[in-house]
Amino acid sequence: MVRRAMTLIVAAVLLVGLTVAALAVPVPYVVASPGLALNTLGELDGEEVIQVEGRPVYEHDGALSMVTVQYAGGPDSRMNLFTALSAWVSPSQAVLPEEAIFPPDTSAEEVSQTQAAQMDRSQDAAVAAALGELGIDYETAAVIHTVSEDHPAHGLLSPGDVVVEVDGEPVADKDEVVAAVKDRTPGDPVRFLVERDGEKQEVEVATVGSENGDPVVGVTVETDMTFPFEVEISVGRVGGPSAGMMFALGIMDRLDPEGLTGGHRIAGTGTIDPEGNVGGVSGVPQKMVSAEREGAEYFLVAEESCDQTFESAVTGRIEVVRVATLHEAVEALEAIREGDTDALPRC
C-alpha cells in the first residue's frame, strides 16, 4: 500500500510538473487587446493631434476619437501557452496566429516600419478626402516610385519622374497613368512625357504582358498631393491605416466654424482613400471596448467591418453606425447633432 501511494504521489507530481512546463512553452500566437482611444480634436502630450497652418481653425466640444488595438507576442517576444489560453477566454481579447500580424520572414522592426508608412499614407489620404468633402481644391501629380530592373522601363524612366502626359494626354494621378497604359495590347509602345530635374522630356517605352496578361512597362506610380495649407497629425508611435476616417472627420471639424459633433462623443475606425471611400479594418471588437471605455456614445465603423461588431461591448450604451464613405459619415454626424437618429444606418 505504501509503495502504491508513493507511486501515485510521484505520478501526480510529474503530471503537475509537465503541465506547468507545457503552460510555460512559448507559442506562435499574438493576443489583441483594447488599445488607445485618442480624441483627434484634443491633445497628446501637450500637443494638438491635428494642427493646421495657413487656414483659420476652430475648436469645438465633443470628441472624434480614433481607437486602436494593442498586440502582445510575436516572433521576438513570444508569449507562453498559459497567457494565450487566458486571453482565449477573455471577452475583450482575441488570440491570432502569429503570421496574421507578422508575415513569415518579417521582423518586428519591419512590421513597425510598414505600419508607420501606412500611417503616413493614411494621413495624406485623410487630408485629401477632407478637402474634397469641403470642396477645397488641391493639386495632384503622378510620380514614378519604383522601376523594375527586368522590365522595359529600366534605364528609361527613373524614380521621382513626374508623369505629365501619356501618349499626348495629360495625366494627374496614379489611376490615370495606369488606365492609359492598360488601354493597349502587350508589345505596343507608350510615349511618356515626364518632368525630371525641372525639365520635360519624352520617353518611349515598350510594353510587355504581366502575369494576368495586362500590358505593363515595369514601374509603380504614386499620386503626390500638394495641399493649399499645411496639416500635421501627431499620434505618437501609433501605426497602420485604420484611423484614416477619423483623421478626415477631425480635419473637417477643425476647419468648420460650426463643428461636426454638436458636443457628442464619437469614436470610429475605418481606412480612407483620397476619394473619401471608407475601407474595412480588423480588431473591431477590441476597438469597440476602447470606444466605450472612452465614453463614446456612437461608434462609426466601415460597412465592410460590420460583421465584426457586436451588440454590447462593455456598458451597452454605444450605438454602432455603418458608413461606406466620408460623406455618409458626415451625414450621420449631422443626424446625431440634430437628434434625428432613428434613421441612422446600423450594422
UniProtKB/TrEMBL annotation:
Residue intervals of the PDZ domain: 116-198
Domain of life from the UniProt record: Bacteria
Pfam families on file: PDZ_2 (PF13180)
Official protein name in the record: PDZ/DHR/GLGF domain-containing protein
